[in-house]
Amino acid sequence: MVVAAIDRAHADWLQPLVERASCGFDLDDLRPQFLTIHAWSIKEMMDLAAAILAKAEHDPPPPLCWGPSSNDEQPVEDRVEVDGQQSLFNC
Q1: What 3-state DSSP class applies to 70?
Q2: How do residues 52-68 score in pLDDT, each as one tens digit?
Q3: Is 0.70 topped by the overall pTM?
């Protein structure tokens, strides 16, 4: 499992790669403000890492956004939602 603090734009950029590598997004029960990327084995996670690096060469991810991390301060449409729960780290 990889734990990440990412915004909607980065989650959208990663989503097709996560799916193709047979990985998935989830929220950590102990830290619901963070998205996690999970896989059945290290092979899928390594495939995802390779796909991220390959995509970044010709289609860089969106610029980083350093905004507030309070869920109350973020517009609903910018939050990342997984299984009905929303992550807090979004811009």
Answers
A1: coil
A2: 999 999 998 887 655 55
A3: no
